[in-house]
Amino acid sequence: IMDDILPSKDEVESRKTTALTMVLTGLRKYTNYSIQVLAHTRMGDGSVSKALFCHSEEDVPEAPADIKVVVSSTQSLYISWLPPTEPNGVITKYSLYTRVVNGREELNNEKRSLPSQQHFYESKGLHPHMEYQFWVTASTRVGEGKSSRVVSQITTNRVPARIISFGGPAVRPWRATVTLPCTAVGKPKREWFKSDVALRQGGLHNSQLLDSGDLIINNLQLADGGNYSCQVDNGIGTDRLTHTLVVQVPPSAPVLYVTSATSSSILMHWKCGFTGNAPITGYTLFYRRGSGNTDEMQLSRHASSHELKGLVCGSTYQIHLSAQNKVGTSPTSIMLHVRTQGQAPGMPASTSLLAPNSTSVL
């Protein structure tokens, strides 16, 4: 039994059984799976069955990945959070909890439901110089999940520059557009850097800086990948976050080489080159005999060798290979010209065909 998690997790697991049924346990929640079966004998593996696709059910989500709170005015606090890394289903709402603390005394508790697409909230009309604590949970149709960590902030008369956006990895396909947010409070001066080199408006030919502080990069190319940092300062406070941009491109050509050839088969291996920052999804093998038509064969993304069988002896074959990921297809490998062993049959000598006697010829 081979279960293959789709589409973003490049994981394959094999399980063996002598029975005709099996219960797969320990699966990821709310995840697509493809399942294939093959039989074994002492002579080797059989053919793989057609893939069966199924989906595990929803559960309550994990905790939101992160939460932060900053002062936005003398009587307001701004809370923002990240969705759970494991939502375990479709998020239906968020619940924001507020607790007011005066020293060791807990004065008030409040719960507020917010739409699933909202990842921020500004709490207004607060008492000055009081400590407010916040935490958030996510819910699916199954129920409410785990709580984020608790963050606290005291309302103040001064509003230091603080970033309410979150940094971290951002993975995008080439030729796409990415928005790197840098929303801040305190009306700060804002600067963007790529690998500690300051970016000016128009500094990147395919980018623009918005008044909101966001950096937009269009028509992404591999060279656009890297660390982008936003720094804010208003004289009262300073803050900085970093986005790590990964641009996914088609893979480079695999390196194909032949390890052996018989009169009817060719055994080849290959090495995967640069994957393009995305998992390889498969290979395509192209081959043809002489100047004949080109045949192609789809091979598993996990394969690193293949044996072409049923070939004609004493013939030259042209063979090359390409790789695919979810973004596109690589250039093909260098074409190899490989000759099978043996030679084409020639014209037999007449003495081997004729057996005459006095009255007949055989």
From TrEMBL:
The signal sequence is none
Domain Fibronectin type-III: where? Answer: 1-59, 63-159, 250-343
Gene Ontology process terms (BP): anatomical structure morphogenesis; animal organ development; cell differentiation; cell-cell adhesion; system development
The reply to whether Signal figures as a keyword in the UniProt entry is: no
Superkingdom as given in the UniProt entry: Eukaryota
Show the stretches that span the lipid bilayer. Answer: none
Q: Where is the Ig-like domain?
A: 160-248
Cite a single Pfam family from the UniProt record: fn3
Alphabetized InterPro entries for the sequence: FN3_dom, FN3_sf, Ig-like_dom, Ig-like_dom_sf, Ig-like_fold, Ig_I-set, Ig_sub, Ig_sub2
**Region of interest called Disordered, as start-end residue ranges on this chain:** 343-362
* Keywords associated with the record: Disulfide bond, Repeat
Mind telling me which GO cellular component terms the entry cites? membrane
Q: Where is the composition biased (Polar residues)?
A: 349-362
CDD domains, per database record: FN3 (cd00063), Ig (cd00096)
- Know the name of this protein? CG32387
Name the source organism: Drosophila miranda
